[in-house]
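Hey,

Quick one before I head out. I ran the complex with FE2/S2 (inorganic) cluster overnight. Inputs first:
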Amino acid sequence: MSAKTAEIQANLIPVYIMGKRYDVPESLTIMKAMEYAGFKFIRGCGCRGGICGACGTVYRLPGDYHIRVGLACQTVVQPEMYLTQIPFYPANRAVFTWDDLKGEAEEVFKVYPELFRCLACNACSKVCPMDIQVMDYVAAIKRGDLDKAAEISFDCIQCGLCATRCMAEMSQYHIAQMVRRIRGKFIAVPSEHCDKQVEAIISGYYDKFLQEVMGLGTLDPMQQDQVTDDIKKLKDLYNQRQMEPGTSENEWTPDSDHALLK
Ligand code: FES
């Protein structure tokens, strides 16, 4: 079946993007449906894989008072949904001098005193597209258990939707990011492997490889053969990369003598 035939056969459903009706194929994600409708993303779109948090979206369904949320790149359109994206939310992000920190909970309290305005309504957890128990990590921070708060918030993708619903006007995701950084510096067991990798990067171990990859970016349409060749080489490099196994009993570290680096 040709792409054209597939398009004709696709079942179109009405959705309302920022109040205007568009008919889009029913199987598309919100992001793809918006592109189908003619929108071009210059903000509010990053990884397209549910990881970067750039595409927070709010929507309502007909006959339902609930405001719903999702990631535009992951949520499939539904008939008659009213939607808009919230690619950026102006939330408070504290300014502090990292080198002055000692890794104590009081330092978080000082720059984010609004933590103690939490009413425990749990709207933040309910809105989280990553199913993080946001209210629980806020409670952990308040009792000084930064390790626990970092663990609970680990999957946060910084979409900011929690802050949009917070009655205490907190920016939970920025607070949790500070806490995870404190944990990384002061609480977590140092990672020997990470230190070695940083040393390798600083020493220039990867420079030759990176220069080669960066040189494969020909975009000149007049050099179509070169563009095709570069794309093929980049795809080959991508396919040959080292990947951490999905499941493994043993601790895994990348092979620093991998063929790609030779
Ligand atoms: S585009 Fe990255 S999470 Fe949707």
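The chain has three domains: 10-85, 98-187, 197-238.

Talk tomorrow,
K.
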